[in-house]
Amino acid sequence: MRKTIVALSLISALAGLTACNDNQETSSAVIHQQHSKAAAAFSDAARMLGSAVGEMCQAQTEKTLAASRSAWQVLMQDWMIFQGREKGSEQALALSWQIQFWPDKKDITGRKMEQLLAQDTTWTAESLAEQSVAVQGLGAMEWLLYANPDRLSQTNGCALAQAVSQRLIHSGEALAEAWKANPWQAMTPQLALGEYVGALTNQLDFAMKKLTLPMGKPGHPRPYQAESWRSQTSMSHLKANIQAMRSLYLAEGKGLDALLRAQGETALADRIAGQFDSLLAGWPQSASMGALLKTRDGYRELISIFNGMEYIRFALHDEVSPALGIVVGFNATDGD
């Protein structure tokens, strides 16, 4: 009788383990599809920006400038899905700095762009690829469209804008190609799960850094350290990060949220999902972080957002990882 009970217990445990592994494999497939679709969307948005910049250079008007800025905003929003995750396709990760050079604490982008415009050169995407990554991506385009639109009327100014947009098109195509293959398919379910939680934790740490750098110390903010201070849209991009992390956490009902519930951790799953929803529901109206940094009330709002993200971070590290048997290692922002 005792042998029978032990055997039944073992069968039950193995069945549970198999179900858990099956769920993790399903999560991996869904998360890969999320990245693949997002990469394709980024590539399409890059082409739209290239088209808008081309039209602007043919006819420089307020309307064409506004259209280029709008296209840049869409591309930035699409990039926020990938920003800071540091997990997945190695080919995709290698593109990160040329797509967006940030943090840029010493305004390398501005100085390098000035140097390029000072040269008697008609820049192309190919020649730009030989230059610093600081002038090849989203930050360089923001510098032209928002901080220095007057440079677009210079002989080589619009040529540089078109070169940057074409370089972004090439990067977008490479990103979409890199995400066609599932980088987690060959991993064991547990290893893939660790990568999944690691991606979420990394992106959360990166988003928190986007707050702490410009917030500085109380009474001494550093607004020019904000991600998109030139376009005054840092808050809208940070919100897109939170939305992307929420989407990654849920993974269309097949993600970490579902895995926790399958393990009986319903209360924990509810708290994390609720915290994401609470952050988004209470998001400040201002798209500019600089505007919030100017007032005490605005600074308090930023502290509240930071605390909300920190709550999720602690939950992932101190509760989720032990519950699912995951060892969380160092990430790309540790030590900064």
Automatic annotation (TrEMBL):
It comes from the Bacteria. One of its GO terms (cellular component) is cell envelope. Gene3D superfamilies: M75 peptidase, HXXE motif (1.20.1420.20). It holds the Pfam family Peptidase_M75. Residues 39-298 form the Imelysin-like domain. Keywords: Signal. Its main location: other. It is found in: Cell envelope. This is Iron-regulated protein A.
